[in-house]
Specification:
alpha/beta; two-stranded parallel ribbon; single chain; 332 residues; Rossmann fold; globular; 10 helices; 7-stranded parallel β-sheet; binds NADP nicotinamide-adenine-dinucleotide phosphate
Length: 332
């Protein structure tokens, strides 16, 4: 069920609001007059986003919060209610990544990615549900990734958490329905690659510069998807045609898609520069109230990568048709 009141009268909590998609979502809602409650670790960046939200016409409260702390997340919900009287929607968006081969990522970093992405989403969901129910029909949006459905090499911890977020959302939705609380909607967003600082923030254990695998979409597109879900909730929504295509390939011909995506990402996720080993923002805040990652400036490299993506997509499409043909023949 959609929000029970117009966005201009609603209160929306957003985690990971100090950067990228979270910042873009806050600005989109602020333009509609929504009261936004902004959470992340970087207090100065959050204050800057709040200031800009007020300029855009919204009401805004910045609450520095580490989502790995369940008590802090409960306090975030309480602060939202004290300030604005209610919570109509909650967007679990905060995430980090440690990029590298599974057996080369430090164990403590792998654990922390799980704590931020999966447990942070679980704590946010627990804190939000009573208030969403109290509002008579709230919306919970988990910003996962297409990596909740498909897999890519060098992102094992991230992929595992995003698959977990999708499973968690499906289960909570079932439980709300069977216990008569289905006025609260639970939605999962599955974006493709997005132009945010994410790839600069990520821990890097590959020895090489990280670059986002194309095609790359703007963060505002995910913000629009999230706002659309607040108005018309659905179980899941892709953000970006490439995510939809990858999801389809994975469902129809999973073994082939797994090979094609592995090949593609192995070739496109790294730039030419060397990079020192780093845990990025996994343990410490590193946000600057910036939405875009600036990857569109690197056109030459991106064009080559886009060509590679086209090849991989075409190869998988051919394989998909082959798989369908095989199944049809086997069914005769
Ligand atoms: N960029 C992509 O290609 C892409 C694609 C699909 C899905 N997504 C998803 O989109 C969401 C937003 O990512 P983004 O691309 O906007 O990346 P981003 O710019 O790096 O933003 C990540 C946000 O999470 C916050 N954060 C990290 N650890 C936190 C913690 N322990 N507690 C509270 N906040 C924390 C960061 O702020 P602080 O450092 O201030 O805490 C930041 O605001 C993530 O869930 C990501 O998985 C991204």
């Amino acid at each position: 069920m959609p929000l029970t009141r117009p966005l201009a009268e609603a209160t929306v909590v957003i985690t990971g609001a100090s950067s990228g998609i979270g910042t873009a979502t806050a600005y989109d809602l602020a333009r509609r007059g929504t009261a936004v409650v902004l959470a992340a670790r970087s207090a100065p960046a959050l204050s800057e986003v709040a200031r800009r939200c007020r300029e855009l016409g919204g009401r805004a409260l910045a609450v520095p919060t580490d989502v790995t702390d369940p008590v802090a997340v409960e306090e975030l919900a309480a602060r939202a209610v004290t300030e604005f009287g209610r919570i109509d929607a909650w967007v679990n968006n905060a995430a980090v990544s440690a990029v590298g081969l599974f057996d080369e990522i430090p164990v403590e970093e792998f654990r922390r990615v799980v704590e931020v992405n999966l447990l942070g989403t679980a704590y946010g969901t627990r804190a939000a549900l009573p208030w969403l129910s109290a509002s008579g029909g709230g919306v919970l949006v988990n910003n996962a990734s297409v990596l909740a459905e498909v897999a890519m090499p060098y992102q094992s911890a991230y992929n595992a958490t995003k698959h977990g977020i999708r499973g968690l959302a499906d289960t909570v939705r079932q439980e709300l329905r069977v216990t008569g609380r289905d006025a609260v909607s639970v939605c999962t967003v599955l974006p493709a690659t997005i132009d945010t600082p994410f790839f600069r923030h990520a821990g890097n254990h590959t020895g090489r510069e990280l670059v986002p695998p194309p095609p790359i979409y703007p963060p505002e597109m995910v913000a629009e998807t999230i706002v659309r879900l607040l108005r018309r909730p659905r179980r899941e929504a892709y953000a970006g045609g490439a995510a939809r295509l990858m999801g389809l390939q994975w469902r129809v011909a999973p073994a082939l898609a797994e090979r094609a995506l592995g090949w593609y990402v192995h070739r496109t996720q790294f730039g030419t520069a060397r990079a020192v080993e780093s845990s990025g923002n996994v343990f410490r805040p590193d946000a600057e109230a910036v939405r875009a990652g600036g990857w569109h400036g690197r056109r030459g490299q991106l064009l080559r990568m886009t060509a590679a993506f086209g090849l991989a997509a075409a190869g998988t499409a051919v394989g998909t048709v082959a798989a369908i043909t095989r199944r049809t023949r086997a069914g005769r």
